[in-house]
Specification:
Layout: H1 2-29, H2 36-43, H3 47-53, H4 57-80, H5 86-103, H6 105-115, H7 125-146, H8 156-175, H9 187-198, H10 201-204, H11 211-226, H12 233-240, H13 244-250, H14 254-278, H15 282-298, H16 301-311, H17 321-342, H18 352-372, H19 381-396
Helix pairs in contact: 1-2, 1-4, 1-6, 4-5, 4-6, 4-7, 5-6, 5-7, 5-8, 6-8, 7-8, 8-18, 9-19, 11-12, 11-14, 12-13, 15-17, 15-19, 16-18, 17-18, 18-19
């Protein structure tokens, strides 16, 4: 029995030795230019020994973040243990993610630039661990919404995508383009954008959604799921967190409530159309730019797939002329933020670079979920884009009630 245990320990150590060697070699030369023989030399084993543990070079590549993510999840849970404040939990998660990547840049770059650009990665065991890790963030957001600290009128998986997208670009600006020395140094600026997007109105001091709006939102959700005939006023009231009698204070009957939904939408759309043709304010420009950015990529899904997977997660892209063109594009975003700050329409503490990372990263992760991971079934993309536009607007304006 003792011999068997010792043998398993030795096997595990040998496997870790190979993974560590692979991380060093791939971080130095890139995955495509790294050979099994070079990794074997670094690990002080023969190439045949590597193939005893890993069926392919890809499997060895995916084993690098697999080992790290298991460690990250374990350490993260210890960091979060005992924290009850939802804002603090979110801040600690983001800080830990950035800090770990700062300490382990080889791992962070391999996961981002080598694994994420490989379609097979998304069918691997490692990716399922990454999903488990992302679920921790989603739980923090959802629990905060349940407790009334964060908003309950937005889809938190969209916020999760936006946050992880921003963190990806933090890693790129730190380890690839070298704009900053440490990604964790921007924690306060990141939080100053995220919290205004998600804080519940009754916590942030902004005008609350009134009961009328809550009832309308609840009615719209339930009508869409069950249909008009099968929906009851009692169900709508319960979902809106009001008494059934309160619903009748605003609406004569169920049909009156039904017709109030498109009425409000039409009024909002008219306002949007007016904004779309004027573009006089930085906020209007920003909202329009976000929509244009989404539409440009979504109209050509083949290019979208290439750009998200094979271009943005390729380190050489950031040394190419194409990146210079891309920089000129996202400079427009930064200039709008600067204009908004100068005109005192955006908060003065908004960091244009961090906002740019949040914007571009949000698009990447949402596009990835829609198309690359084949999860676009039953997704209302127009609604999700609307929510992204509103969330990003909330991140920069003084008064969320004026963001539209």
């Amino acid at each position: 029995m003792t011999y068997k245990i010792m043998n398993n320990i030795l096997i595990s150590e040998k496997r870790d030795q190979i993974i560590n060697a692979a991380e060093q070699v791939i971080a130095k030369h890139g995955f495509q230019k790294s050979s099994i023989s070079e990794i074997a030399n670094q690990a002080n084993v023969s190439a045949s020994v590597i193939y005893q543990f890993f069926k392919s070079k890809d499997e060895l590549l995916f084993a690098i973040p697999e080992k790290r993510v298991i460690e990250i999840i374990s350490r993260l849970k210890k960091h979060l243990n005992g924290i009850r404040n939802h804002e603090s939990l979110l801040g600690k998660f983001i800080w830990f993610h950035l800090h770990y990547n700062d300490l382990h840049r080889s791992y962070a770059n391999i996961l981002l630039l080598e694994c994420r650009s490989n379609e097979d990665f998304y069918n691997s065991k490692t990716y399922s661990l990454v999903v488990d890790y992302s679920r921790i963030l989603l739980n923090i957001l959802n629990n905060g919404a349940k407790e009334g600290v964060f908003r309950n009128d937005i889809k938190m998986y969209i916020v999760r995508d936006m946050i992880f997208g921003a963190l990806d670009f933090q890693n790129i600006t730190c380890s690839v383009t070298n704009e900053i020395n440490e990604s964790a140094m921007d924690l306060d600026d990141i939080m100053s954008l995220i919290l205004p997007m998600i804080m519940s109105d009754n916590r942030s001091g902004v005008k609350k959604y009134d009961k009328y709006d809550n009832i309308l939102m609840s009615a719209e959700n339930i009508f869409s799921q069950k249909g008009f005939a099968k929906t009851t006023i009692a169900e709508i009231a319960k979902s809106a967190g009001v008494g059934e009698g309160t619903v009748y204070e605003y609406f004569n009957n169920k049909e009156d409530l039904l017709f109030a939904i498109p009425d409000k939408r039409f009024k909002n759309n008219l306002k949007q159309f007016k904004d779309a043709f004027e573009f006089r304010t930085p906020l209007q420009k920003l909202r329009r730019l976000i929509r244009i950015y989404f539409s440009l990529f979504l109209t050509d899904r083949n290019f979208l797939k290439i750009f998200v997977l094979q271009v943005q997660y390729n380190s050489k892209f950031y040394e190419s002329n194409a990146y210079e063109g891309f920089k000129a594009y996202f400079k427009i975003i930064e200039n709008i933020i600067i204009e908004g700050k100068n005109k005192k329409q955006f908060r003065k503490d908004v960091n244009p670079r961090i906002f740019r990372n949040l914007f571009l990263g949000a698009f990447n992760h949402i596009a990835l979920r829609w198309f690359i991971l084949n999860k676009k079934k039953n997704i209302d993309m127009v609604k999700e884009i609307d929510q992204v536009v509103n969330l990003l607007s909330s991140a920069v304006v003084f008064d969320k009630s004026k963001q539209e």
